[in-house]
């Protein structure tokens, strides 16, 4: 079993205060060194004016009402740990669904732990000691992971309770010194609460202080006292810090769905679900760019992904329907599937006739009667909460509504009408089309919501620009000191066009709507080993691979002949297929002698998302083909080949000897430059078939051990080949021209 590092989260609570206990404390002015008077209000202002963490529900501004019902099945998620990480250990988020269960920490004393059914929304981690909590946890994960989690939790409580560092138990002082530097220790000591008169005043007027406020004060005071005792146990700290039971319903500001997603400023959706204060689930999501087309009647006619028509709907005997109701009529369905790897089409020919309303109806805040489907949709579409806005024209609103209706009609199909796996596949694409329409049309009402001055910019921090008038979706730009939104685009920062932003968690907080419950903040995840190093190693021979494939439950599958479009020069192929869809898989290829190919285009490449098969598309897992296409096939087609071979490296973990490169490109890197693997594959294939190319050039291109050719010799040989092909007018001519251009631009 592979042992996985677990990122860490922390729980944060905010305060609410007034004479009635319902108004949130904002930026309260400090009362000064001396008490101005002894009223309860002034006492509370003075005590809480330097609260280490201030994040509250009011800071949650990016919830997505339109995604309230989007709660995908578990098999749609990939592991969060399978994402690539940058140099800082932040996960690089790409298209798809990811999830992980993390350790978590309570960051506010005297409040209730998360309870079942509470939804949590995204907000920024705010407060004068937010930076210190982040640093403490980052150092714990990267430098001192041997420290028990309970000790780290105790230190967090000490910081938020403003404990006098000089009077802390020696073991906690020593542990704290391992996690923060001397300068921060000095700041902590200076910020400790030593005003006994203030504590006495709060106790004297406790009858006039709202209960939820007094509980926080009381818990922090008792924690300060406990840290001065040598024999204080963790159980005692926990008893003071975490209130048992469920937060009072009366303290609920408004209900929040547990399935509710928020939009993260780095360009993705995020959802957090705590389980107590020691574990929290983090979900992140970027919809795949599935586009839904509609016909003249407003009905969904096709679903297109990356230029390929994945699903086509052809309706017969369409049911007309008024705008207040919805129903579905099913006659018979004839399904035709084209399962080519690069183009999958499911054509529904007859009978699937969801009763869509016509396409010229209006969706506004008064659409339909209260309780009708269209009115419920309008209520979500025009939700007033938060800083997000949707720039949708009437046609797009209608399309969203019709996609939603289509999903419901697919769900209502009897099992005998359509294969369940195929139904799931179509519903998956419909969901992606709906969510992608929402995603790409998002804009920000208040650009300042994502420009938190307390967050120190760095070279990897991405923020969303303010788009009050545009209709082009999340725009990610490079963010650096002194120049918030320069013209340096995302693609110049990261290697892959699919990247949307970093899952850099220290500034992220999940806040519930109950004012007496704890808030959740995230810490940076640990640096993990690359995703492909977690996969089973390739057998050294094809015979050994075949033996493994014969064993039940091994996961290995003998695929027979290797696909020359993807692994030119390989003879045979095997795959390790994971037990669940959405997970990474292994691929191994072998030469004519049955030996593992260890490098070159012919070598096997790991899959970020396994296709769950040897080549034909399997609908047994709805996300297998789209995920494999996005994260493996498209990168193979779009990236420079040297980069793809570097980042999807062939496996030789068994250290098979000797090294066995086939169709290698190292010897001709200057000639091929940034050509893609499909381009180089075509170049190799044409060279192998050509009867006019010289043996010297053929061996050079095919990597058959020919000696190096000088630049001048290569140019001469390539031009002779070009003349023999009768160029122009052939694709090989374009490739030869690219090779010539690369050679001419060498220093």
Folded structure, characterized:
The protein has 747 residues and is α+β, with helices and mostly antiparallel strands. Helix content is 29%, strand content 17%. The chain is built from 19 helices and 28 strands. Strands 1, 2, 3, 5, 7, 9, 10, 11, 24 and 25 form a ten-stranded mixed sheet that branches. The protein has a five-stranded mixed sheet with strand order 12-13-14-17-16. α7 runs antiparallel to α8 and α16 runs antiparallel to α17. The longest helix is centred in the middle third of the chain and has 21 residues. It is globular, with a radius of gyration of 30 Å. The N terminus is likely disordered.
Short description:
It contains 19 helices and 28 strands.
How would you describe the shape?
A: globular
Computed over alpha carbons, the radius of gyration is 30 Å
Biggest sheet, open or closed, and with what strands and sense?
10 strands, mixed
Tell me the β content.
Answer: 15-25%
Oligomerization:
single chain
- Span between N and C termini? 49 Å
